[in-house]
Design a protein that fits this description.
This protein is α/β, with parallel strands linked by helices and 539 residues long. The protein contains 17 helices and 18 strands.
């Protein structure tokens, strides 16, 4: 794959300007750059969804491109999970076309065009390993820790995390020559992530990954492709993400030294010219020197290296408006199952203590997000009850960002009668939404921007009990650190679901609820690691 003198703009926004790069067919590459640099746009170029203004992005067009977006939207809601994954390889479609060709040949006699097409289709079936395909698919499903019982269920009955894993399994099963993955670990539990990491390392094809999960990148990639938002260029670094960071920081250091040297030379020339102007106008030798220095000054200024723009970081300070009760929340003898499904909980009981950090652990599909929705009153249990202390004020961060109205603007989503317009503008600026940005509709925002809007809504509510479902999804490492520090210092109670061990360890978890067992243990990193890897075993 090669990019040559690529230019691309959306209106007045430049994405690429004379950008070039080169990658080998089997490279494993991390695609990095600040928000808005053009990472997802690069994927859209590969998929043919957008076109360059000029220049070339060239690769063998016979190589199929597979894409896993940040936000999974499976349209075929009524399709059985088995069929959805299996049809990642168009085997049934190819066989149907072959049957049609056989029928035509029988009725119409030999036709070179049909025979040629038949040969191509048979080659495709061989490529897709038609006779081993089902075994390959089932092995992939098992290794990704997708419950086999899910295969007979419609996609619409799966949890958000299960849908994401199923979509990922379908993509891997489809076996494209180029894999484009946008934040692929957002919804993976640790056992699935461990398998996917090894699978991608050994993948026979090109893998390009956008990810804020540094450990994931380090384990897979051997090159980093950096899109520079300041100059709209692309540079490829050899090595893992940590190698890229070291090289990039050293380049920044040397660049800064060079800039300071240039600035010093410019200042010296400007000082000489100023003194020469103040000297006697009859000193012709000095006037000639001044003219010479002015020419040098103009040249130096034209050659002056520009410093990279420093991008603002998100700021957040979350605090409750009042102290909660000693027991903010109590769950008593809870029983719940979705229609035509097995029980998720049977006689589940626990009490939350004031100011504690309570983590819910379990594989995808055991009911972690469902339990949070029951606590929020979005679902109703078959039996049992959930009791709230009268002093409990709840704010909810939903995994799928359901709290946002995508048809409304950023400002309309956070509008709160307790704040005036200028207060809201100031708070939104801390979440990196400035001036007219706040009038953008949420539906046009990136997943990371939507996550920041949802976090802003949490802050504005000043609740003393935070219900957080995967709050680090879509957020870059710096922003994850900002919110981790805030949640650690938060003077209230937190109930958390997260597949991000680094984030979990930062906010100071007190106890863990282990699903599906319903057991509660005191927190320890060793115990957390154990359950992240072993809680996929069946009872």
């Amino acid at each position: 794959m090669r990019g040559t003198n690529m230019h691309l703009s959306f209106g007045l926004t430049k994405i690429f300007e004379d950008a070039s790069f080169s990658l080998e067919d089997d490279d494993k590459v991390g695609l990095v750059g600040v928000n808005g640099a053009g990472k997802t746009t690069f994927f859209r170029l590969l998929l043919g969804e957008v076109s360059l203004d000029s220049g070339q992005l060239s690769f063998n067009k016979n190589r199929r491109v597979g894409y896993l977006p940040q936000t999974i939207d499976i349209e075929e809601q009524d399709t059985l999970t088995y069929d959805y994954i299996y049809d990642g390889r168009p085997i049934r479609k190819i066989n149907a076309e072959l049957d049609e060709i056989y029928e035509r040949l029988k009725n119409e006699g030999d036709d070179n065009r049909l025979l040629k097409r038949m040969g191509k289709l048979q080659d495709l079936l061989e490529y897709y390993e038609v006779y081993q395909a089902e075994d390959i698919m089932l092995e992939l499903v098992i290794n990704m820790h997708i419950d086999l019982d899910l295969l007979s269920k419609p996609i619409k009955n799966l949890s958000g995390g299960e849908k994401s894993k199923v979509a990922f399994a379908r993509l891997l099963f489809s076996n494209p020559e180029i894999l484009c993955l946008d934040e692929p670990t957002n919804h993976l539990d640790q056992p699935s992530k461990a398998f996917v990491t090894q699978y991608l390392k050994n993948y026979h094809g090109q893998v390009i990954i956008i990810s804020h999960d540094v450990s994931f990148l380090n384990a897979i990639v051997a090159k980093i492709m950096y899109i520079d938002k300041a100059n709209h260029k692309i540079k490829v670094y050899e090595g893992i993400y940590d190698d890229y960071i070291r090289q990039y920081n050293e380049e920044k250091r040397l660049k800064e030294l060079n800039i300071r040297k240039q600035e010093k030379e410019i200042s010296a020339l400007e000082a000489f010219i100023l003194k020469a102007k103040q000297a006697s106008q009859t000193n012709h030798a000095l006037k000639k020197m001044k003219q010479d220095r002015e020419a040098k000054l103009a040249k130096k200024k034209s050659e002056l290296i520009q410093r990279e723009k420093t991008y603002k970081k998100m700021k957040m300070h979350i605090a409750p408006k009042r102290e909660g009760g000693l027991v903010p929340l109590e769950v008593e003898h809870l029983k719940f199952a979705y229609p035509n499904s097995n029980l998720l909980y049977d006689d589940l009981s626990f009490r939350i203590k004031r100011n504690e950090r309570f983590l819910i652990v379990g594989k995808n599909g055991v009911g972690k997000s469902t339990l949070l929705k029951l606590i929020m009153g979005l679902l109703t249990p078959q039996e049992g009850r959930i009791r709230y202390n009268p002093k409990t004020d709840i704010a909810y961060y939903a995994q799928e960002l359901e709290s946002l109205d995508y048809e409304k603007s950023i400002y309309e989503n956070v509008d709160d009668k307790n704040y005036n317009e200028w207060e809201l503008r100031a708070i939104l600026a801390n979440f990196l939404f400035f001036e007219n940005d706040i009038n953008k509709k949420v539906k046009v925002l990136s997943p990371g921007e939507r996550a920041r809007v949802a976090l802003c809504k949490i802050l504005l509510q000043k609740a003393n009990l935070l219900i957080l479902d995967e709050p680090t999804n879509h957020l870059d490492p710096e922003t994850q650190m900002v919110i981790a520090l805030n949640f650690k210092m938060f003077e209230g109670t937190i109930i958390l679901v997260s597949h991000n061990p680094a984030f979990v360890s930062q906010i100071g978890i007190d106890r863990m609820l282990i699903l599906p067992y319903g057991r509660i243990d005191n927190y320890s990193e060793e115990l957390l690691d154990y359950y992240y890897f072993l809680n996929t075993k069946k009872d």
